[in-house]
UniProtKB/TrEMBL annotation:
This is PHD-type domain-containing protein. PANTHER family: PHD/F-BOX CONTAINING PROTEIN. Residues 79-103 are annotated as: Disordered. Residues 16-74 form the PHD-type domain. PROSITE patterns: ZF_PHD_1, ZF_PHD_2. One of its GO terms (molecular function) is zinc ion binding. InterPro entries: JHDM1_Histone_Demethylase, Zinc_finger_PHD-type_CS, Znf_FYVE_PHD, Znf_PHD, Znf_PHD-finger, Znf_RING/FYVE/PHD. It comes from Rotaria magnacalcarata.
Length: 223
C-alpha cells in the first residue's frame, strides 16, 4: 500500500485519469481540502482520493494492501497490517521483542493498571470555588495543584454536568474539525467532530482517540 499527500504528486502525464472522480494530474491539487491524501490500489495500481472512497487517513495508515471497489471483487477486501506485538506503537513491527514498552500501547496500559500510586493529599491544596480569588493567589502563590471541591463561586461558566457529546456536536456544528490522537500509535489525525461522536458511540471501538482540543469560540456553544 502506498499513500501520498497530493502536494508531492510529480508525475507529468496529463492524460491519465485518477480516482473515481476522474481527475487529471493537473486537477489533483484543486481539491479545496489540503488534508486529503491519495492511496494506491494494490490490484490495479490506480490512485484514489481518501475522500472519494470514504477512507480516513487514520484507517489508511493501518492498511497493508488496499483494494479499490473494482479490485475488491477479485481480491476481496483490503488487508490490514497484522498485529505482531502489543507493546510498540508500530504494532506490525515483527522485530519488536527486544524493544522497550512504549506509552499508550496495550502492554503499557496493562502495566499502568497494576501500578499503585502514592496518595495525592500531601501535594495538593483543597479549596472551594469562592476561595479561589486573585487576592488569594497573590497572597499564597500557586505552587501546588489546587483541587476545587465545589465549583460554586468560581465565576466560570461551565456547561451543565449532564451535557452529552451529541449536544456539544449540535452546538458547535458537525463540520467542526478536531485534532485527535490515536493513543496507541501516538499519531495525530484530523476528524470531523461528527465522525468523532459517531465513533465514540459505536460498539466496535478498537482504538482510543483522544480529542486534543476543541475550539468552541464563535460557535453556539458560547453564544
Ligand atoms: Zn477523487
Ligand atoms: Zn484497483
Amino acid at each position: 500500500m502506498s499513500r501520498q499527500d497530493l502536494s508531492s504528486n510529480n508525475d507529468n502525464n496529463n492524460e491519465r485519469r485518477y480516482c473515481i472522480c476522474q481527475k487529471r494530474e493537473d486537477e489533483l491539487n484543486e481539491q479545496d481540502d489540503n488534508d486529503d491524501f491519495m492511496i494506491e490500489c494494490d490490484g490495479c495500481n490506480g490512485w484514489f482520493h481518501g475522500k472519494c472512497v470514504s477512507l480516513a487517513d487514520r484507517i489508511a495508515d493501518d492498511i497493508e494492501k488496499y483494494f479499490c471497489a473494482e479490485c475488491s471483487k477479485n481480491y476481496g477486501p483490503s488487508i490490514f497490517k497484522p498485529k505482531q506485538n502489543q507493546h510498540r506503537r508500530d504494532y506490525s513491527d515483527g522485530n519488536a521483542e527486544q524493544k522497550p514498552v512504549q506509552s499508550g500501547t496495550k502492554d503499557f496500559i496493562k502495566q499502568l493498571k497494576r501500578k499503585t500510586f502514592l496518595d495525592c493529599e500531601p501535594v495538593i491544596v483543597r479549596a472551594k470555588g469562592d476561595q479561589l480569588t486573585s487576592e488569594h493567589l497573590f497572597a499564597n502563590g500557586f505552587t501546588k495543584p489546587i483541587l476545587i471541591s465545589s465549583r460554586d463561586g468560581l465565576e466560570l461558566t461551565l456547561p451543565d454536568r449532564t451535557i452529552t457529546l451529541q449536544e456539544i456536536n449540535k452546538l458547535i456544528g458537525p463540520e467542526q474539525h478536531v485534532d485527535i490522537i490515536d493513543c496507541e500509535k501516538q499519531v495525530i489525525y484530523k476528524m470531523s467532530f461528527n465522525d468523532y461522536v459517531e465513533y465514540f458511540e459505536s460498539y466496535d471501538r478498537n482504538k482510543i482517540y483522544n480529542v486534543l482540543s476543541l475550539e468552541v469560540s464563535n460557535t453556539k456553544y458560547v453564544l
